[in-house]
Write a structure and sequence with these properties.
The complex is a heterodimer of chains A (about 325) and B (about 100). Chain A is an all-alpha fold. Chain A contains 13 helices and 2 strands, in the order αααααααααααβααβ. Chain B has one domain. The chains are: A mainly alpha (about 325), B mainly alpha (about 100). Chains A and B meet through helix 10 of A and helix 3 of B.
Chain lengths: ~325, ~100
């Protein structure tokens, strides 16, 4: 009992210390590294709180992909201003970062207090979801909420992701990156890493997708793991950024949204209700499409390009 | 009996991890640090994974832990190699400037 409390206290104090370093650290590069470590500790804390779905998402998206995106942005910063490379990137304004983090902390505090207030009376939504879980044929309540009970929210989430990608594309358009690979796949060790990790990422993504119905996992985590493979392929130069997207790329960007929204609308035609996909197979198909879309969007977001083309070795 | 064995492995693993971290923080240059960090941490991870595999008493969990260790091994080897390569290249540039 005291042992677990000690572990929890240790985790929380590490988390707060890391957050302080991210906000107050003088050097930008170190702040990024601390942010990635923060994401990993956060994932461990989600795990300790008994929410493995969130822990998976935090580790894959919060620590992994966001970290990769930030390091990519840092690299771009060094390309623009070479002096930043020597100092490790100076912050523009420590006061601004403190102010922004205080505001963010305030927002979290307000939301947290609101959440505590809610706890007494209105657990009904959660209870209703758990009570009608057996009707869906799914074992994982998180997947049931994401795809069925609150499916419309998920459609909008997919659209937000697409909107974020389009916004990033617009910025990247005016400011072409050199696009050179950081570590070429022709180096024997990098080639070996890539040959091991990319197929493994694919296997893990498919496993998360399949597991999502009954156990922790699902399209978002699977898509993020898929994108990790895409990031590695981009970094090692196996795929190169393209200024124009092919038809297949364009289609895979919207595939998930189309499938989810389509399966939500189609039942209306023959007198069903909105957002009620027919059966478990349909849910797997929708999740697979969403995984592809999320994976492709996040990979393209990292490479800051419209499309990717494979390079023959 | 298994518990005692696992405990010994865990303590050993933590010892190696600790030594690796001390090496990372205290050693003078990037090559020494990489050497200490990757060698000690890989061994530490192996001991911890072995202890957890013993405690899990399931072949599936044990093989997954082995896979985790192998992945950690691949990742740390390749990143240590790349960091050392980068440091070496930077050194050459510096020496070129000095002449």
């Amino acid at each position: 009992m005291i042992g677990t409390l000690a572990v929890d206290l240790l985790l929380v104090s590490i988390l707060i210390g890391l957050a302080w370093q991210v906000v107050r650290g003088r050097v930008l590069f170190r702040a990024i590294v601390f942010f990635v470590a923060f994401g990993l500790i956060m994932a461990m804390i989600w795990g300790r709180l008994g929410v493995p779905d969130l822990a998976l998402a935090e580790a894959a998206i919060g620590a992994g992909l966001t970290g990769a995106l930030m390091l990519g942005a840092f690299r771009r910063l060094v390309e623009i201003d070479a002096r930043q490379a020597v100092s490790g990137g100076l912050r523009p304004s420590p006061r601004l970062s403190l102010l922004l983090s205080l505001l963010a902390g305030l927002l979290v505090a307000v939301l947290g207090l609101a959440g505590l207030e809610l706890r007494g009376g209105s657990g009904e939504a959660g209870r209703a979801a758990l009570d009608s879980l057996h009707l869906t044929g799914l074992g994982n309540p998180v997947s049931a909420v994401l795809l069925l009970f609150r499916g419309l929210d998920t459609v909008f989430e997919m659209l937000v992701l697409l909107g974020a990608f389009l916004g990033a594309r617009h910025v990247a358009e005016r400011d072409r990156r050199s696009g050179a690979a950081i570590a070429s796949h022709r180096l024997p060790m990098v080639g070996a890493l890539q040959m091991t990790v990319v197929p493994l990422a694919l296997v893990v993504a498919l496993h998360l997708l399949r597991a999502g119905a009954n156990d922790p996992g699902g399209a978002f985590q699977a898509g993020a793991v898929l994108a990790a493979g895409g990031v590695l392929l981009t970094l090692t130069g196996r795929v190169v950024p393209q200024a124009q997207a092919g038809l297949l790329t364009r289609f895979s960007l919207i595939f998930g949204t189309l499938m989810l929204a389509g399966s939500g609308i189609v039942p209306l035609i023959y007198g069903g209700v909105l957002m009620a996909p027919p059966g478990k197979t349909a849910i797997y198909a929708i999740e697979a499409a969403m995984m592809v879309s999320i994976g492709v969007t996040l990979s393209l977001l990292f490479s800051a390009s419209a499309g990717l083309r494979a390079v023959r070795s | 009996m298994i518990d005692v064995f696992a405990l010994v492995l865990l303590i050993g693993g933590c010892g190696f991890m600790f030594a690796g971290t001390v090496g990372l923080l205290r050693l003078p240059d990037v090559y020494c640090r990489l050497h200490a960090q990757t060698k000690a941490d890989n061994l530490g991870l192996l001991l911890i994974c072995a202890a957890l595999a013993l405690l899990s008493e399931s072949l599936l969990a044990a093989s997954l832990l082995l896979l985790i260790w192998l992945l950690g091994l691949v990742a740390s080897t390749v990143s240590a190699h790349l960091i050392a390569r980068h440091a070496r290249a930077a050194e050459r540039v510096d020496r070129g400037k000095g002449r």
